[in-house]
TrEMBL record:
GO BP terms in the entry: isocitrate metabolic process; tricarboxylic acid cycle
Isopropylmalate dehydrogenase-like domain location: 69-402
InterPro entries: IsoPropMal-DH-like_dom (IPR024084)
Domain of life where this protein originates: Bacteria
PANTHER family given in the database record: DECARBOXYLATING DEHYDROGENASES-ISOCITRATE, ISOPROPYLMALATE, TARTRATE, ISOPROPYLMALATE DEHYDROGENASE-LIKE DOMAIN-CONTAINING PROTEIN
Pfam families: Iso_dh
Name of this protein: Isocitrate dehydrogenase (NAD+)
Gene Ontology MF terms: isocitrate dehydrogenase (NAD+) activity
Listed SMART domains: Iso_dh (SM01329)
Protein family membership: Belongs to the isocitrate and isopropylmalate dehydrogenases family.
Length: 408
């Protein structure tokens, strides 16, 4: 009996149907897994919102503390080199307070890339426990591996210590530039930066998170600063025309907060044009205080620092209600170490962070003295210049220079 010519009876066609069915089932299974992951991420973020809402603690008042503990985390690469000079400055300026026990300097050595890779923790648990015993942290740059699942130490610390406000001042007095950036520090693209989902060979998705409570507190911090420092202009920087849910809500909430500060003018700007505005000499001196989501703040403050003289000149503070962390804004510069130039790293950025730390914990006169010394050394006198190469001064020589101005 002859076989049917009907293609539906061909064994090859049946196999194709079976293969297609298995492929669809596999894809459906992958989609189900991804949806399950997203459900868990969503629940985690809702839990975080609940913790924020339930935290009724008053912000720490450093003036009321019997002892202020400053944690010192040197970090990776050039971190230990520049941290040596920062600690020398702290020891000099706080000598009386250290001798009396009012201030304690606590070295913490576990926040290194080798220790983090060994434990596979962004911040090893034992190190985090030591950090939480401190009131403020002075941190050197840390290395974040490309790819993989090891989260940035900075991102992890900001989350674990709830350091929601990244504050970066930039000044170029001769050009009338006096900017202060308030970057939201615990949300946006970074809060789930290591928790995206992927269908290998097809697509990958990362997430951006904006909460009402998180946005309100960063906007309030920015407006409170502006009001306390006589500033009259606030720029809210988003991409709300494209990111309508996340950035749209950020802008909306910022305007709601602004209603309580009638003497401060609020303007909306998109991040792309604002990056252009900062290099537009005709208008950039008009800006005063900026408030913006996490990723935009990370990018634009590096641009602003370059206008000031480079990322090596800018310090950064990460402020929460119970903890604060101060750091250089640049990275660990592994190439300098590989090229044997680590001793020629510029400590100015970390020294600027020391100034911000001193001011934050209430030693405003000491902070002002360091600010004056750095201005003389970096801008006015420039008798010792660090270039990052052997044709310039070493990090230690620049430290000697700054200390000579503080002692003088």
């Amino acid at each position: 009996m002859a076989k049917s010519k009907d293609k539906n009876n061909k064994p090859g066609f049946v196999r194709e149907l079976v293969d297609l069915s298995l492929k669809e089932m596999n894809e459906m299974g992958t989609i189900s897994d991804v949806c399950g992951q997203f459900r868990n991420l969503l629940q985690d973020q809702l839990n975080r919102v609940s913790l924020m809402a339930d935290d009724k603690r008053e912000p720490k008042n450093y003036g009321e503390l019997t002892t202020i503990t400053i944690g010192i985390c040197p970090g990776d690469g050039i971190g230990p080199v520049i941290m040596d000079q920062a600690v020398r400055v702290l020891d000099l300026l706080l000598k009386r307070e250290i001798d009396s026990g009012r201030v304690v300097i606590n070295p913490i050595h576990g926040l290194t890339i080798s220790n983090r890779l060994e434990t596979l923790e962004a911040v090893p648990a034992a190190t985090l426990e030591e950090i939480k015993k401190c009131d403020v942290l002075l941190k050197g740059p840390t290395t974040t591996p490309k790819g993989g699942n090891l989260e940035s130490a900075n991102v992890a610390l900001r989350r674990e210590l709830d350091l929601y406000a990244n504050v970066r001042p930039v000044q170029v007095p001769e050009e009338g530039i006096d900017w202060t950036f308030f970057r939201e520090n615990t949300e946006g693209e970074y809060v789930l930066g290591s928790s995206g989902v992927e269908m290998p060979g097809k697509l990958a998705i990362d997430f951006k998170v904006t909460t009402d409570l998180g946005t309100k507190r960063i906007c309030k911090a920015a407006f409170d600063y502006a009001e306390a420092n006589g500033k009259t202009k606030m720029a809210c920087v988003t991409k709300a025309n494209i990111m309508k849910k996340t950035d749209g809500n950020f802008s909306r909430i910022c305007h709601e907060v602004a209603l309580k500060y009638p003497d401060i003018e609020l303007e909306d700007w998109y991040i792309d044009i604002m990056t252009a505005n900062l290099v537009n000499k005709d208008i950039r001196s008009d800006f005063q205080v900026f408030v913006l989501p996490n990723l935009y703040g990370d990018i634009i403050t590096d641009e602003a620092a370059e206008i000031q003289g480079g990322v090596g000149t800018a310090g950064s503070s990460n402020i929460g209600d119970q903890y604060a962390m101060f750091e250089a804004i640049h990275g660990s510069a592994p190439r300098m170490i590989e090229d044997g130039l680590g001793d020629y790293a510029n400590p100015s950025s970390l020294l600027k962070a020391v100034e911000m730390l001193l001011k934050h914990i209430g030693f405003t006169a000491k902070a002002a003295a360091l600010d004056e010394a750095l201005d003389i050394c970096c801008n006015r006198e420039k008798a010792v210049v660090v270039t990052g190469f052997k044709d310039g001064a070493t990090c230690a020589q620049f430290g000697d220079y700054v200390l000579s101005k503080l002692q003088g």
